[in-house]
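thread: overnight batch results

M.L. [08:02]
morning all. the overnight job finished for the chain we discussed friday. pasting input first so we're all looking at the same thing
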Amino acid sequence: MAKDNLLVPNQPKMNYIKHLTGFYEKVAQDNTLNPTHISLYLALFQFWNFNRFRNPVSISRDEVMRISKIHSKATYHKCLKNLHSSGYIDYQPSYNPFQGSHVVMLDFGRELKVSKRNFSN
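M.L. [08:03]
and the structure it wrote out:
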């Protein structure tokens, strides 16, 4: 009996806290990104979440722009291509207005490096 809340067979568990922490660690070292890139990435992350963290994710430009609060198509495409070329996502455009483009979200949770911090007073 299949249930909606069960993990997909052969699908690794996604720890979204570790993923987002790894993403922000990567962003902190990257001087090429601005807040628009981060907003777009988080909108794509939400689509990935709705897709139960399965890749690739089919996206609708209008919906992603709405969620990320990007109003310019030129800015949207520029940031999407920047995220792709910088290794944050794998963007696969469809060039078909009736079919969504695909995005493969990379797992930054596995790249997480534990930093030793001194928490003593």
